[in-house]
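[Amino acid chain]
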Amino acid sequence: MKSMTGYGYQEERNEEMFLSAEIKGYNSRFLEMTVNLPAQISGLDYEIRRYMAERCRRGKIEITLHLKEYDTEFSVSLNRGAVTAYLKAIAELRKITQDFFLEKETSGLEKPLPEMIFEKDILTFLGLERVLEIEKTGNKTAYWDRLEPVLRSAADQFEADRIREGKHTETAILSYLRDIESSVNIVVAQIPILEISIKENLKARFIELQKDIDENRVLAETAVLLMKYSIAEEVSRVSAHLTEFRAEIGRNPSPGKKLDFLCQELNREINTIGSKTPVFEASRAVVAMKDALENIREQLRNIE
């Protein structure tokens, strides 16, 4: 049994790069993944999702990777379209400013102001947006080979955290199952008291109606009412559901959905038992069963 909540973190640092993987898990009815990647490894989104889907069946999972490269090769190319657009804009600006200064008959300057504006160092021009296209070299496979061990280590920690939390939850659930069994035994123990209560009530009705008490008739009507209030089938089904509950926990590493279904079935049987057992002690035991079952449901919200 695994919890859906957990945390894992791993990092690697060397002369070439710093790489870290962080995984967080939360409750969710289905498997939901959010993957946050830096630009240079954004192409690995599918591989990361597939890797985590093989290890997790349910829950909301957030995966965040950071990559900082210290010494990596990259290629630089000139964006001719951007250069042409800038030159056209500069030429237009030069014409506008020249016309402006001619109209003002500006003099005394060693050269027209527009030329003073545009005769700048080439590095300034290269610094304009999108003039240079810089692309880091490195293929997808090479990045995955570096990333996969870090991701695996973080996922191992994440899973260990979920297993540890799941073990605590399993212990609590098994304790609540024992509480339900104890309460069922209390209800079963009240059946003779229920029989006596039915007999006494029937006799009281005969006396009230001023009729002679016919023991055979009392026994016959008692039998009819006991059949009406019989909980033998419900008790048997509760016992079967509890057995299946424990078996599912033991054989299925991700039993959450099946246990949710069994809780619904247990709730139905417990409600029926409650409607058929008017004895006070039995009613108290039914309340205890409902309380234990609700606690189990609460625990199951965090189980994969």
Remarks:
- DSSP finds ten helices and six strands in the chain.
